[in-house]
C-alpha cells in the first residue's frame, strides 16, 4: 500500500477513536473537558485549512479509486469477451495469468475505494456527532443554571418535606385513634359489668323486701 494510503488509514483510525470517545456514556464533568481538548486544535485557522486540504486530497483519491475500479472491470470484461470470440488465443499466451493480474489490481482498487470512502463518510459523521454532543452539554448547563428550574427544585423539595410531615402526623392521629378506641372499649366493658352487678343487687334487695312483706303478712294472719 502506498504511503498516502497509509496516511489515510491512520486518519481513519484516529476518527474511529474520536467517534468512540464521543459515543461513550460519560458524565458531563468528564465529557466537557474531553470536548474542549478535542476542539482546541480546530480553533486555529492553520489547522482548519490543513484539514480541508487533506479532505480534498482524500476525495481526489476516492474518485481516482472509483475510476480505477470501473476501468479494471471493463478490462476484465473485455478479456473474457476476447477469449470467447477467439479460442485460439490460448495457444499464444496464458490467459489465466492476465486474468489473475487484473483481478489483483481490481482488489487493490476496491480496497482503496472503500478506505477513502469510509474515511470521508466517518469525517462527516464525526463532525455531526461532535456538534450534537456540544449542543447537548450546553442545553444541560442552561437547564441547570435556570433560576426557574432551581426554584422549582426547591419547591419540590419543600413539598416533599411537607408531605412527609403530613404522613407522620396522620400516622400519629391513627395511633391516637386506635388507643382511644381501645380505651373506649375497655370503659364500655367495665360499665357493662358494673351495670349488671348493680342490677343483680337490686333484684336481690327486691327479693328480700318481698320475703319480709310475705313474712309480716303471715304473722298478722296468725295473730288474728
From TrEMBL:
It is a multi-pass membrane protein. The chain crosses the membrane at residues 6-26, 47-63, 113-130. Keywords: Coiled coil, Endoplasmic reticulum, ER-Golgi transport, Membrane, Protein transport, Transmembrane, Transmembrane helix, Transport. It comes from the Eukaryota. One of its GO terms (biological process) is protein localization to endoplasmic reticulum exit site. InterPro entries: BAP29/BAP31, BAP29/BAP31_N. Residues 156-183 form a coiled coil. Residues 1-144 form the BAP29/BAP31 transmembrane domain. The keyword Metal-binding does not apply. One of its GO terms (cellular component) is endoplasmic reticulum membrane. It is found in: Endoplasmic reticulum membrane; Membrane. It holds the Pfam family Bap31. Belongs to the BCAP29/BCAP31 family. May play a role in anterograde transport of membrane proteins from the endoplasmic reticulum to the Golgi. This is Endoplasmic reticulum transmembrane protein. It comes from Wickerhamomyces ciferrii (strain ATCC 14091 / BCRC 22168 / CBS 111 / JCM 3599 / NBRC 0793 / NRRL Y-1031 F-60-10) (Yeast). The lineage of its organism: Eukaryota, Fungi, Dikarya, Ascomycota, Saccharomycotina.
Amino acid at each position: 500500500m502506498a504511503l498516502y494510503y497509509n496516511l489515510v488509514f491512520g486518519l481513519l483510525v484516529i476518527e474511529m477513536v474520536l467517534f468512540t470517545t464521543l459515543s461513550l456514556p460519560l458524565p458531563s464533568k468528564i465529557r466537557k473537558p474531553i470536548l474542549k481538548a478535542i476542539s482546541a486544535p480546530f480553533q486555529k485557522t492553520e489547522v482548519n485549512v490543513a484539514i480541508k486540504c487533506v479532505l480534498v486530497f482524500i476525495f481526489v483519491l476516492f474518485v481516482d479509486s472509483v475510476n480505477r475500479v470501473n476501468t479494471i472491470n471493463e478490462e476484465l470484461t473485455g478479456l473474457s469477451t476476447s477469449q470467447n470470440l477467439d479460442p485460439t488465443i490460448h495457444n499464444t499466451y496464458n490467459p489465466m495469468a492476465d486474468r489473475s493480474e487484473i483481478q489483483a489490481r481490481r482488489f487493490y482498487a476496491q480496497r482503496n475505494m472503500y478506505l477513502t470512502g469510509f474515511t470521508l463518510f466517518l469525517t462527516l459523521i464525526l463532525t455531526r456527532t461532535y456538534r450534537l454532543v456540544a449542543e447537548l452539554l450546553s442545553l444541560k448547563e442552561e437547564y441547570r443554571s435556570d433560576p426557574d428550574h432551581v426554584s422549582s427544585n426547591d419547591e419540590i423539595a419543600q413539598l416533599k418535606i411537607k408531605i412527609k410531615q403530613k404522613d407522620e402526623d396522620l400516622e400519629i392521629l391513627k395511633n391516637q385513634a386506635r388507643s382511644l378506641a381501645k380505651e373506649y372499649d375497655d370503659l364500655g366493658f367495665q360499665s357493662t359489668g358494673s351495670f349488671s352487678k348493680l342490677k343483680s343487687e337490686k333484684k336481690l334487695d327486691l327479693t328480700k323486701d318481698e320475703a319480709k312483706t310475705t313474712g309480716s303478712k303471715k304473722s298478722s294472719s296468725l295473730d288474728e
